[in-house]
Records
---
Amino acid sequence: MKTEHDYIADLAIRNGAEALQNARSVLERALKELDYYTERYDSQEDFDDKGETLNAALHHLTTFVPSNVRLDLLANAQARLAYAKRQS
């Protein structure tokens, strides 16, 4: 029969796996978006257009990735694992 500690440990492990999967999914989406910007950049002739594309890519990477990776989920999962370890 599972104890309360077993449930806490299982939840901590599951939360960590889910947080890592979320981060991976966000980074994969960001890479696809970066592929789009790369193709757009390569197809442009004008320096101004290339510069605007680089700016758009920078904006995407600095706003989309940090806000969607959810570092808080990773930190919370880490804290739950530490708590579960202390309880064992």
Note: The longest helix spans residues 4-43.
---
Amino acid sequence: MNYTCLYLILCILTGVLWMFNGFLCIVVGLFICLTCDVHAIWRNVLVLHFCKMRRRYKPKKLMDTNIFKVICLPTDVDIGLQITTGRLLRECGFGQTEFWVENFVHDALATLKGEIKVTAYHMTYEYPIKMFETFKIIAKIVYWDDTSCYMKQTVMRNLDKKECATILSIHRLTGVTTSQVLNVLGKDCVQSKQVLSNLVRKLQEINMDISKKL
């Protein structure tokens, strides 16, 4: 069942409940949001449009750092009341969407009719994030080649400023090259190409090995 059908069913159910008892409708709605993670259906769309409005006042360049603020909800935790790896990666996905929109890469890809997809992750997890704790995901481009961009995301707890996790991801371009995207963004979007680090090189090797096996 796709998200559209699920949304329509929820709207119909809400309308029926509201006819009988408005308070019951509110309680059921909150229960569904907390247990079924319904907010994830429309959250990516909200992030996309919110960033398009915010960048009018605070435009960013490709090499600028992006900070995505998050709170750990009851639907994000495991039995130990700590955020799961899957949920953390999902929040990183939202942060990636915000990053590409705010520095106009999303618009450049639309102009060139290209796409960008995550093809590999490398994650190190050091400190736990517990339920209702707030944290931020700091994203930055650390390297790029002809076909891919390499993004580093640092997860930092707001309570004690500890770096809880580090995620390095490969974002592969399809239908376009990195040079074409940079030309659309303009020469002032980057200062200089970053040095290829050992971590990026290792991730490249892992990604190539996986591609060969597939």
Note: The mean pLDDT is 80.
